[in-house]
Design a protein that fits this description.
Layout lengths: L5 E2 L22 E8 L6 E4 L3 E11 L2 E4 L4 E10 L3 E6 L2 E6 L2 E5 L6 E7 L2 E6 L2 E5 L8 E7 L9 E6 L2 E5 L20 E7 L3
Parallel strand pairs: 1-2, 2-4, 3-5, 4-6, 5-7, 6-8, 6-9, 7-10, 8-11, 9-12, 10-13, 11-14, 12-15, 13-16
Length: 200
Amino acid sequence: MKEGNVVTNDTFHNYFDDSGNLLDTVTDDELIFEGDFSGIDVNYITIDREIKFTGKNAIFNGVSFVISSDDVEITGFDLTGSDYALIYLNDVSGVTISDCKINFTAVEDSESYAIYAFSVDTLKIINNNITYVGCTNGNYINNAIRIEGDEEEEISSDEIIIQKNNFDITLPSVAIKHPDMYSLENTKIFSAGIDLIYCY
């Protein structure tokens, strides 16, 4: 471990700006997060370059991780929140989420996910403890994990690995809605623990 790549609550803004974006001055290929992060005044941490985030008793409450770069690894974090998604990925590949404790309570009248990924390749979700509590009434989607391909562009999300995780998922029972009783086309499921759509 190189000296200078350890992030604590007190040094957080030496590495991230006021919006939670990695500073251009950060050139490490790994950041080590230690301790309880409170009062950092950011709602999102955006990861826009290849890097590994390693948590050592690292606790975040109410902070979401937005991954917008390929080849990112997040391991060893304790994440708690209630928002759109605690971990959000869009159009990336080679991402690993491992050995994390993820606690998420869905927001009322909102689509809510612990982990949401759209148009991704080679995504590994391994050895995490994921607790999810949903509250949808059938108007908004609630999933602990939701991974989608881009069906409109006919681009699937490929090489999705979800293994050795422990799940504690509580969801309301909500009817499946589809256009008519004889067709499942355009079926919309509002309440599901893990939903993979257009993935191979």
